[in-house]
Specification:
binds guanosine-5'-triphosphate; nucleotide-binding; binds magnesium ion; metal-binding; Arl8a/8b; 5 helices
Length: about 160
């Protein structure tokens, strides 16, 4: 399966990829420039991961990396409600590209290890990821210490063909 991971800067995309690829949580992450490409094997599935940069100047590239993938993962920082509006805007901007019609979407509310994080129902209200309609949509909460990463991996594996 090939997946693209997008979302605003500092939402935790690279940290998430580090945990699913090496099982290691590292404090030492630097803001991504352009993208990182990672390839991992999980059982008999090879995941090709485009970890795309989230700073404003890189957002116009998201569509290019998402084009042709088996699933898009959109990461949101669930402890930073002030960014929800921008996140929604960028998410809808991305999903509005005709090239991405029908691509399965997984929205991750990251940093759920921190007290006061927004729960899934609040993220759904804030981001309204169901518009436009997606055939395959999932919204999950995750964080560095959470086992939901396994659920996420399962979801991703199920999207491969
Ligand atoms: N507590 C907590 N901190 C996290 C989590 N994920 C990421 N962080 C922290 O959030 C900050 C940003 O993480 P990155 O993984 O660099 O974020 P990014 O989305 O890749 O950012 P860009 O590459 O600039 O788009 C870092 O200080 C991480 O340590 C998490 O699940 N829990
Ligand atoms: Mg990054």
């Amino acid at each position: 399966a090939e997946i693209a991971i997008v979302g605003l800067q500092a939402s935790g995309k690279t940290s998430f990829v580090n945990v699913i690829t090496s099982g290691q949580w590292s404090e030492d992450v630097v803001p991504t420039v352009a993208f990182n490409f990672r390839k991992i094997r999980k059982g008999n599935i090879t995941l090709k991961i485009w970890d795309v940069a989230g700073q404003p100047k890189f957002r116009s590239m998201w569509e290019r990396y998402c084009n042709g993938v088996d699933a898009i993962v959109f990461v949101v920082d669930s402890i930073d409600p002030e960014k929800f509006n921008t996140a929604r805007f960028e998410l809808h901007q991305l999903l509005g590209h005709p090239t991405l019609t029908g691509v399965p979407l997984l929205v991750l509310g990251n940093k759920n290890d921190i007290d006061g994080h927004a729960p899934v129902n609040e993220l759904i209200k804030a981001l309204r990821p169901t518009q436009p309609v997606r055939p395959s949509l999932s919204l999950q909460s995750c964080g560095v210490y959470s086992t939901s990463r396994d659920i996420v991996l399962q979801w991703l594996s199920g999207r491969s063909h």
